Amino acid sequence: MLHTLIRSFISTFHSQLRSLTTSTSPTSLNVHCLNATRSVLRVNGDDCLHFLQGLITNDTRQLMASVLSPKGKLLHDVFLYQEPGLELPSTNRVLMEVDSEGKKDMLDILTRYKLRRQIVIEDVCDTFLVWAKTKSELLTMGVAEREPSSTPSLPTVRSRVSVQGGVTGGWSVDPRLPELGWRGVFKVGDVEVGDPSSSDPQGIAAYRRTRYHHGVAEGMQEMISGNSLPLEFNLDVLNGVSNSLPLEFNLDVLNGISYTKGCYVGQERISFSHFRGIIRRRCIPFRISQPSLLNADLPILIEPGSMVRLLGPSEEQVAGTVLAVEGNVGLALLKLSHVKQVADQHEGRLLVSATDGIMGPDACELQPFRPHWWLPEWGQEETGSAK
């Protein structure tokens, strides 16, 4: 039975990836090299898909997944690719995109779990680079269109542009959300993408804002992996490993987790959390509403790790932690009960300060909002209104 499943995975690996690409090439594209934050590893061997199938949270036929600790805690987010430039497609050679800061740890994990399998794991960062491609319209952070939401907790923000299909030349539609454009791995010097140094830093910053606007975290710094958790993050930490679950970063709805693929490292905890149906905190996008901090001449002092507080009618409570900020848009890991208290009951405000957590004159208000892809029941799990 197991061998039948493995053969099924291998036989459909290419067709699943090819189905994400078309020959239609969109206009007004922005191409960004992500080599500053993302690195590429190669997993090579006859048993490599079987090996990865037992390690990552998603089916190997998909592109995006995560790697967990045995207790189900988030360690790394990864993307899988076929290696470009081969005369014949090979299921025995897979490229894995990982966060650059976690590359060494990911190499150690792969080496530890391969046991006696005839698999070669290589760092190929000098050969391959990760690129992202977006339409110009997707990088325009204008006034968002608001639509009614079936859940009153947060206002809905829906993208005005939807990307349909992919393009040839190694590009695939971003497996998390089509609004994020395309993603691909190319050899250094490939004419399809050009010189990495030609990437506009402002364009990369705009790409991050777009990602934050849609509520999508990426990499160890934003997803606060348990391996290198900064001490300033206000999260429970035990022996250097955080209590963050991939579900708190919404990876199940962002196509990063499969509940039908079978066993993998950390699967028991994820299945328990999923079927129990209660996630008390989630990665939520926000806007900064303090007018003085939106002045282009003034730097925004909020940094990742800043503590978010709920300033209520009678008391002040810790609501969560800022994960990332770009301009006036960012991501925070927030307790949904506190967000509901502000959004539904209009009791209190979510404030963050850069002055040692003290709500001084530099404190500003965060306005979280619900991305269009969020499930209606999120945030309602403990109110009895979830279905």
From TrEMBL:
<dbReference type="InterPro" id="IPR017703">
    <property type="entry name" value="YgfZ/GCV_T_CS"/>
</dbReference>
<dbReference type="InterPro" id="IPR057460">
    <property type="entry name" value="CAF17_C"/>
</dbReference>
<dbReference type="InterPro" id="IPR027266">
    <property type="entry name" value="TrmE/GcvT-like"/>
</dbReference>
<dbReference type="GO" id="GO:0005759">
    <property type="term" value="C:mitochondrial matrix"/>
</dbReference>
<protein>
    <recommendedName>
        <fullName>CAF17 C-terminal domain-containing protein</fullName>
    </recommendedName>
</protein>
<keyword id="KW-0809">Transit peptide</keyword>
<feature type="domain" description="CAF17 C-terminal">
    <location>
        <begin position="280"/>
        <end position="374"/>
    </location>
</feature>
<dbReference type="InterPro" id="IPR045179">
    <property type="entry name" value="YgfZ/GcvT"/>
</dbReference>
<keyword id="KW-0496">Mitochondrion</keyword>
<dbReference type="GO" id="GO:0016226">
    <property type="term" value="P:iron-sulfur cluster assembly"/>
</dbReference>
<dbReference type="Pfam" id="PF25455">
    <property type="entry name" value="Beta-barrel_CAF17_C"/>
</dbReference>
